[in-house]
Structures are given as C-alpha cells and as structure tokens.
Design brief:
Order of helices and strands: EHHHHHHHHE
Distance between the termini: 17 Å
CATH architecture: Up-down Bundle
CATH topology: A middle domain of Talin 1
Helix content: 55-70%
Strand content: under 5%
Number of domains: 1
Number of helices: 8
Largest sheet: 2 strands, parallel
Strand order of the largest sheet: 1-2
Shape: elongated
CATH class: Mainly Alpha
C-alpha cells in the first residue's frame, strides 16, 4: 500500500476520541483523487459528494467537482449500500447533462439562487435529504472496516 495515510500517536488517539475521524476526514478532504489508492477512492468520492451537496446542493457539486467522476461516484455509492443517493446523483447528472450547453458559472449568490438550473436541481436536492440513511454513516462504516487504509495509529 503506497497511498497517503494519516498517522496518529496512540496517545493522541486515546486522548481525543475524535482524532481518528478527524484524521480520516482531513485525508479525504486534502488529498487529490488521483493520489489515492483504488481502495481509498470510494470514501473520498462519497465525502466530496456529501460535502458539496450539504453545503450548496447538486449545482454546487457539479460546479466545484465537475462531472468526470460522477459515474465512479455512483458506483461507489451503490457498492457502499447507499442506493438512494446513487439514484439521486444519477437523476441530477441527467438534468446537468441536458443543460450542459447553457450552463454559466454564477458570479454572485443571487445568480446562483436564481439560476434556472438551480431551480431544476432543487427537487433532487430535496430528495437527498429524504434518503433513509445518511452519507456520514456510510463514511463511518468505511472507516470502521478499513481504518488502516486511511489512518495509522502508532
């Protein structure tokens, strides 16, 4: 295994109950996708999907992350048992693709909120919040099963 890992001392892990989680999230947030091992990519892609949609909806996700990794992200969501989210992302991608030629990057908050594409994506944004689970739980499960891929406690 040659991909990036966060390293914590055993003392830090004992002293701060959240240190392993924080190191995991830091790694997912701060590492470029192409620098990760194949086994690390699902957590990274799920993290960024969850973060962007929670922060500004699917429009923000597409504007900030692009569409290139969407098919892989959908596969990762399905593999992690997050089928509800995978279906929503597929719907959002279909809307995005239909409007791809007309997409202009908003230059202000007002333009973002009033964007016709944002209004079209509001439905899938609402569906995201109605899924029976949440993606933080999915990320916690990945960490619990594969901690050594992300965080080494010495």
């Amino acid at each position: 295994m040659t991909g990036p890992r966060s390293t914590l001392s055993a003392e830090e892990a004992r002293r701060n109950v959240h240190s392993i989680w924080n190191a995991y999230i830091d790694l997912l947030a701060m590492t470029d996708t192409d620098k990760l091992e194949e086994e690390q990519r699902p957590a990274h892609l799920i993290f960024w999907y969850e973060s962007e949609v929670q922060n500004g909806g699917h429009l923000q996700y597409f504007l900030n992350r692009g569409e290139e990794l969407v098919p892989e992200t959908i596969k990762c969501l399905r593999a992690a048992g997050a089928d509800c989210f995978a279906s929503i992302l597929a719907k959002a991608m279909a809307i995005w693709e239909l409007e791809a030629d007309a997409i202009a990057v908003p230059s202000s908050v007002e333009e973002y909120v009033m964007s016709p594409l944002q209004r079209q994506l509001e439905g899938v944004d609402a569906e995201f919040g109605r899924c029976p689970s949440n993606l933080i739980t999915v990320l916690e499960g990945i960490l619990a099963q594969q901690q050594d891929l992300f965080v080494i406690v010495e």
